[in-house]
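> example.struct
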């Protein structure tokens, strides 16, 4: 089994704004159910609080990814030249953020997809 095949089940791409939309929908749904008992309401509220906490962490991770994508020495013409992603869809990277090169390599345009940088072990700051 290749590294990418191993990765697929563990890769989940979540956008904080998508999660926030989901929370809004849930909150509106709760308000519409006035007969909801107090215990159920509390449980749902607790779950919403933990989702909100997760969103805060995602926002921090997102900002780290953006910062790394702007300061990493491996970025050339907005793309990361350290990784060659042979099968982007398999690892959850949308194809519209991939730069297909003549030598057959597939590079991620990190200015469009800074999520790749969040936990990247190859980060090195640019030297000026
Ligand atoms: S942090 Fe990693 S993924 Fe991001 S540009 Fe640098 S090497 Fe590429």
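> example.seq
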């Amino acid at each position: 089994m290749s590294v990418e095949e191993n990765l697929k089940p563990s890769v989940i791409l979540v956008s904080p704004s998508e999660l926030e939309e989901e929370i809004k929908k849930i909150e509106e749904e709760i308000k519409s159910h006035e007969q909801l008992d107090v215990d159920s309401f509390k449980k749902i509220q607790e779950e919403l609080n933990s989702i909100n906490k997760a969103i805060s962490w995602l926002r921090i991770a997102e900002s780290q990814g953006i910062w790394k994508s702007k300061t990493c020495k491996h970025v050339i013409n907005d793309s990361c030249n350290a990784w060659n992603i042979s099968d982007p869809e398999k690892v959850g990277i949308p194809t519209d953020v991939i730069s297909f090169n003549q030598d057959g390599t597939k590079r991620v345009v990190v200015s469009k997809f800074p999520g790749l940088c969040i936990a990247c072990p190859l980060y090195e700051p640019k030297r000026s």
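> remarks
Residues 68-69, 72, 74-75, 80, 82-83, 110, 116-117, 120, 122-123 surround iron/sulfur cluster (CB under 6 Å).
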